[in-house]
Amino acid sequence: MTQVPNWQLNRPMEYPYEERRPRRQVAYVFDTNKCIACQTCTFACKTTWTSGKGQETMFWNNVETKPYGFYPTAWDVNILDLLGSQSWKGDKYAGKTVFEAAPPGERVLGYQPDELDYAHANLGEDDAAGLVDKGAYFTGIHPVWMFYLARICNHCTFPACVAACPRKAVYKRDEDGVVLVDQTRCRGYRECVKACPYKKVFFNLVTRVSEKCIGCYPRLEQGLQPRCVESCIGKIRMQGWLSKPAEPRQDNPIDYLVHVRKVALPLYPQYGTEPNVYYIPPVHVPRDFLVQLFGPGVDEAIRVYRTAKDDEKLLGAMLLFGNTPIILERYDVRDGQAIGYDGKGDEVIRVPLTEPIYVRPYRDDAHQTFRHNTS
Amino acid sequence: MRKTLLLLVAGALILAVDASADADLVTRNVAVSDSVLAAMDPFASFWDAAAPAEVVAIGQAVTTPSLLDVPPVALEVRGVHNGRWIALRIAWPDSTRDASVEVSRFSDQVAVQWPVSLDPGVSPFMGTPHDPKGRVHIVHWKAIWQDDIDHGYQDVQTLHPHFWSDLYYGVDSRGTPTRDHTVLLRQRVGHGAGVLPRPLRH
């Protein structure tokens, strides 16, 4: 084990390999407040990449209902139980990561899910956080809550799958940070399946090797955002490139949301893998639960999120979500519009900060009829 | 239940099992037919002429992930050759037959490592890196591969017989005899068996 700096933990941590950040890192921001669990992302991914035999219960992208929905069943609570106490001292993690808590003779703390754990995606989705008492009524705070958590591979900076593979069949690409399983080198030992704390590496019983989300890298190479991002009808997602922690760019929308305003947070940062999917936390969920999921930055993230309506630069970054399939590498806000630019610096999208309102006369003289507002 | 496996390696005659100092593991030159098929009968009388050697499974702590807690399994190994091919018969006690492709289950398997050269300095730990004389061959048998040979490729419908309409978890074929071996040993004594003809190349 060597010491590597993990900015999400605010401390160095143990990892089997030296720190080697890619030239650029694929990263995503998901706004959980906007997700309606329509599963369009899930099926965009499914029909693109996992429609084959042996992939029947495999979802590289899934949307689960928290707190009791899981895929695979109980994935996160299992790891949390294994990991033991996970306390933070301020913004510094005081517990152990999955690497530091590895049992003797292993590189990562993990567990192997059972086949049945994959059989029922989002088992538990109908269970809210508690029962509604007889006579209860809404007072402005939801005593019973749930929210939707969309999940893909986090293309971690310190991937547990890479750490665990005894054959070095799992690797992280230098050009974009995408983590891949070499299908010809993998022998199906399933150490990566066991190690990934997010359970986003899957064993294919037909090929008998493991596979995972590939970040739609053929699209990334063409400057296009992944299928799950492009297809999201709730426009909750943006994919871009995250700069190194010490080099954030104010005009990079992903950097701005993650590094500058810290409104988007990593999922279970205490695992220690430095995941690169960042979530804007749901505003209505109890803070203790959110701190467990997203770390100690939750309160500040929600506070900042609530100011977005009065903060043009922040609002502009968020309004660029889902409005173009092209990867935005730079953005600007001016004249009441958010403007996105591609990698060549060309303008590719322009979104108004406030939707224009058009008022049409009730009477349509041209067609000799009346207009009705049926929406 | 006792599991018996037959490994047949044709084409060369180098045998230096890791326990090379163990004289019992040196193969005997037996007079059998040149036919490879002759060696595929694990109950042929010539096996009695080969002295059995016991290889006890030990833990692996050389690299991670290690396997330290190993049940005390002893493998009985018999080896024969006729100057052109080598055959090993390996047997071990096993109360279950594991050949599933489920994500959380692993197949019965065994492997034999062969040095390519007779150089005594070849590392027993999968050879000596960057040394042409330090190369090894590893002959690997898995029960699931044996099922592929015996019954066709073990596929989704093997695990889920009603696959064409749904996977129907909870009514799978686990425990049913749909994937049993039909090779010689089972017919005779009810054991699982495997035959792995694989050429040994320099």
Explained architecture:
The complex is a heterodimer of chains A (375) and B (202). Chain A has 375 residues and is α+β, with helices and mostly antiparallel strands. Helices cover 19% and strands 21% of the residues of chain A. Chain A has helices spanning 40-49, 75-83, 160-164, 191-195, 217-220, 227-230, 253-260, 287-294, 298-306, 312-319; strands at residues 2-6, 11-15, 25-31, 62-66, 88-89, 92-93, 147-151, 170-172, 179-181, 201-204, 209-212, 237-242, 265-266, 277-280, 330-334, 337-341, 347-352, 363-364, 369-370. In chain A, the strands form eight sheets. A four-stranded mixed beta sheet of chain A has the order 12-3-14-13. In chain B, strands 1, 2, 3, 4, 5 and 8 form a six-stranded mixed beta sheet that branches. Chain B starts with a strand and ends in a 5-residue tail after the last strand. The model of chain B is unreliable at 9-24 and 174-202 (pLDDT under 50). At the A-B interface, loops of A face loops of B.
Task: Describe the structure using short key phrases.
A: 375 residues, alpha+beta, three-stranded antiparallel beta sheet, 10 helices, 19 strands, 19% helix, B: 202 residues, mainly beta, six-stranded mixed beta sheet, two-stranded antiparallel sheet, 3 helices, disordered C terminus
Helical proportion of chain B, percent range: under 10%
Residues in β-strands, percent of chain B: 25-35%
Mean pLDDT of chain A: 94
What is the tally of helical segments of chain A? 10
Question: Structural class of the helices, strands and pairings of chain B?
Answer: mainly beta
H/E topology pattern of chain A: EEEHEHEEEHEEHEEHHEHEEHHHEEEEE
Query: CA-to-CA gap between the ends of chain A?
Result: 60 Å
Shape descriptor of chain B: globular
